[in-house]
Amino acid sequence: MGSVPSHGLAKNPTTQVYQASRDGRTSDLDNFLKQLDGRKRKSALETKTKDGDDFTTPLVIAARNGNLDAVKILLKYNADIEARAGTVKLQDKIDVAGCTALCAAVASGHLDVVKVLLKQNAKVDERTLTNSTPLRAAAYFGRLEIARLLVENGADVDASKGGDGTSLSVACFHGHTGVVKFLIEHGANMNVQDIDGNTPLHDGMRKGHIEIADKLLSHGALQLQNKHRLTPLLMASNCCEIEMVEHFIKHPKCTKEHRIDALELLGATIANDPDAYDIDAAFWYIKRGMEERFQDKSHPLLKRHREPNEAYQNRKESQTLEELALLEGDDNAIHMEGLIIRERILGSDNSEVCSPLNYRGAVLADSGNFDHCISLWYHALKIRTRCNKPVAMYLENFAGLFADMISRKLVWEINLLQEIFEQLVSEYEKLTEKLQNRNLQVGYEEVKAIEQELERLTYCALYLLMIYPKVTHAVENQKLSRLHLVQRFIRLVPRTRDGDTLLHLAACYSTAIKDFHVRSVCKLPCVKTVTVLLLGGVDVNAVNPKGDTPLHVAVTFKPSPKEADTLKAMLELLLDSGADPKLKNIYGLTAMDCCATDDSRRILSDRSGVDITTIESRAQTDFLHSSPQDPVGQSTTINQSSGIVKLAVLGKDWCFPFTAFSYLTKEFAVHLAKHHGLEVIFLVPDKSLSEEDKKEANSRGITIVEAKAHPGFPDPVDWLCFPPNDFFADVVVALDDNLGKIAYVLSEHLRSRKRIQMVHSLNTETGTFSFRLYCLSNESGKLSSSRRKHQTNIGMCERADLVVGLGSKIADELNASLRYLNKQVVNLTPGIFSELSDMTHAKEDGRNFRILVLSGNESAELFHDRFHIAAKAISLLRDKTFYLVFTGVKKDKSDFLKKCSECNVAEQQLIIKNFPVSEKDLKRLFCEVDLAILLSAEDECRLIALCALSAGLPLYACGDSAFAASLKEVPLGTASIIDSEDAKIWADSIRKARETDREIRLEQATMLRSQFEETYNWDKQVDSLVKKILDMLQGD
């Protein structure tokens, strides 16, 4: 939505000039610049403005958007024609750094703007920060007329982008025949090679562009080898471009040797390519190659002799048609023949050989042929190592393979695991040295790639060390090369990008084991793996960025009865190895404070010299006023060594029936549960959660507690007043006013120590607090504005120990209302709902353009919430293919239709749907529409707008809504805000949204979602809230 202007008045001259340039408002632009003095005008023309993903000058954005008159005006006022953008987004979602106005106009296809800029002497070969030129951009997008204009003005046809090839290479790769022909005719070098050794002919042939290949060959292009020893013809074979190969081998310049190699490599590739696999076709092409060899029987072209390789079952490659005929019908023999042929043609030190080896090995493993799989994979690993290519994926494959063999109770040599581990250590050493000694040739992207590879190697090392004790049961008595390899690896201080050491990972029950086979046979925490690490010299008190030691992590484990011994063994092992239980993390918590069970506390207390009965006595004293039925010592706080903080979130459901409230509750609870210092309890009415919901909650570290039904209380929410007898929480969190009453009751009955009230909405028109979350499935009617309701709600906030306003607008209003009590309100703006962020939208627009009007209200109130604006906007568009979609119009439907009719919108342009009652219904609704609009300023509608944003749906929001207040802090957010009640402005914005290519529109929505997620990061906000909760309890 970045192309849509923000309609609020921009007081900053720089912003005024930028927006007028971006939007082509030439009259405004001229007036703005005319009114500025020389210094301010220069600043406005040269300053870069952050606008979503764009960070650029007025001239570059005007050129990018094709605003010719705006470009002329800016040049008239002496805008720097060579000024570079920080970044600007071009077509095909490409972000370009250091782009000039000329490059932006070229890439966007604005020929008239290019002419003006060249006439004003713009540098025709000026490069971007990524070293690209305007001509290269024209070649990429196939802009023939612009390419012609650039060359006429002196553009260098052979300018390259570093090692990424010339403009001719780019045009060949993307199939722009007209540009290719033009560049050749104007002297472009057809044999120039890029950093990988590829020529323009390589680029054209590997993409199957036959006409381009013919054009290049007819003008004398050579068949050069690239760095993988692939000629353009062999590259076509290697890419399974069958039509290209068949066409090319008939070319007069194609020699017999080249023809044979192409046919054999094509057959060999098809035999082991999952996307092109056809065993009969593979044999046929291999046979055609052999027939070519013996076409002249008196002088056959024989194959080079190669020694048999164990990886290929010591098979010898067929030398004659008779030998080859023996393979027909034997699929495995043809597979091996293909692999042998590939290695003969490409060479044994060529990484192009490896992918088919990996694929064929995986197929063999699936069929239980592990020995052969190991031979192939090990062969591939050696080749990639020789070629200095990343090997983490191949090592991960071995870890999974070993685990699979263990699950099948197969016997195999431990030496093999040691060899793989040694390969891993060597690779880690090599990459670490490269990072430490990197020179200017190692760029930012390569550094990131190396860091990612190092993390994969770290996890792979964990998998191998977990598997090792399962192969040999006596860890202490086994060598693993006398632990030399482990010690060598530990000295490299391997950590994840989150800062966890191997010991943290091995001691933590929640460490993700990504490989299915490893996960099926290995479980964390793993005492034997920790033993190996400690013997290898790992620092038992190493801390991660949160200050947690491995002991902090280990005590959070809540074992089943069968796992109790594992917990005891783990803690005793760490303590015996010198783990310090007194160390505090950044939240001020010791390991004792983080204990999830009494067993953990007892073990630590035995080692620290504190009698466990003393701890329990202290806990009992602190909660002396708890109800008689509560077991002594059940509750804990961070002030005692007795345990972690028990925080109960009051809930109505987990995900059904659907409400936006469900997403908020779930997301909030899940992020709370990530904290080792908390035990998160989800208190819900009995039978409100399915077994599947319970399993999901438990898997996320959330304990489900159910309150049983009580006679005389028909509303299940009221059952929460009667939790199980042993329920006690240090903190109870209420996420709306009804739950707030429950929290108040629990506090008054001494079932909790502290109470947090969260506030979702404010009725600013009446001045009353509603605390009620309206969402799509809430049909309870209008907000109460009675004085009693107002006093009750204010009183709940006054008596709460901590008040949280969900969003800056609500937090500010609450701060003003509670200021007289000197009560601080915490601002927590809900971030993206992860449950909706995986949605996929159709890539093509339909015939009609559907606009969802976001609301939680019923039809009787719709027109009080500015929904007449939507109706009038559709009327002004005068296009019957625009449709409005409303939800929840249950009563007075005829009156609703009448009011729409009064706005001159046709009834057939109205789609009325029921409120979604499930997540599936909501996702279906979001997929059916093309755009969402939030017209209501009522706070209750904000969460459903957040649902739409989370789903990646393009949207607009009215400027005075709480949701718009959140969007304003997001770089791309202002483009989705319409600060006006003028239906014409809304109509123009809707039209512009439809005119934007759907793929770009969805990409902009995705970028907005990503920026919103970064701005309102759940983890960071919940971390801050948890800190305040702990401070509150410590100060009690």
UniProtKB/TrEMBL annotation:
ANK repeats, residue ranges: 54-86, 97-129, 130-162, 163-195, 196-221, 546-586
Gene name, Swiss-Prot/TrEMBL: FEM1B
SUPFAM superfamilies: Ankyrin repeat (SSF48403), UDP-Glycosyltransferase/glycogen phosphorylase (SSF53756)
Record region (Disordered): 1-26
Source organism (scientific name): Stylophora pistillata
Entry-linked Pfam families: Ank, Ank_2, GT4-conflict
Coiled coil segments of this chain: 414-441
InterPro entries xref list: Ankyrin_rpt, Ankyrin_rpt-contain_sf
Associated pathway: Protein modification; protein ubiquitination
Protein's name according to its UniProt entry: Protein fem-1 homolog B
UniProt keyword annotations, A-Z: ANK repeat, Coiled coil, Repeat, Ubl conjugation pathway
Family of this protein: Belongs to the fem-1 family.
Superkingdom as given in the UniProt entry: Eukaryota
